[in-house]
Design goal:
CATH class: Mainly Beta
Distance between the termini: 60 Å
Number of domains: 1
Largest sheet: 4 strands, antiparallel
Order of helices and strands: HEEEEEEEE
Helix content: under 10%
CATH architecture: Sandwich
Shape: globular
């Protein structure tokens, strides 16, 4: 069993912010690309992650890093609802400065 709060706190200490996502069977999230790194961990159910031309069947508790700019697809497998953790790397913001002329 995965302790969701522990994982999210660990991810936060590593600079990531996220939450819990639940989805129904046979759902597909295709061709996503994010500007920041993403962490993902299945809590319950069956999920296939396609990333970089490789298909991975994720086991509950297995952490996966999806690098920024990488196209990925998530497929919900099986007949049960799926629950997973996700988090994105926090972006650092810089102030825009007006150049001195």
């Amino acid at each position: 069993m995965v302790d969701e709060c522990f994982i999210l706190k660990d991810w936060a200490s590593r600079g990531f912010s996220g939450g819990v996502w639940e989805d129904r069977p046979e759902r597909t999230w295709a061709g996503f690309v994010h500007a920041e790194d993403e962490l993902m961990m299945v809590i319950q159910g069956e999920v296939e992650l396609e990333i970089g031309g490789e298909r991975l069947r994720l086991a509950p508790g297995q952490e996966v890093l999806i690098p920024a700019g990488t196209t990925h697809t998530i497929r919900i497998l099986g007949e049960l609802d799926v629950r997973w953790l996700y988090a994105y790397a926090r972006q650092t913001h810089t102030r825009l400065r007006t150049p001195a002329y």
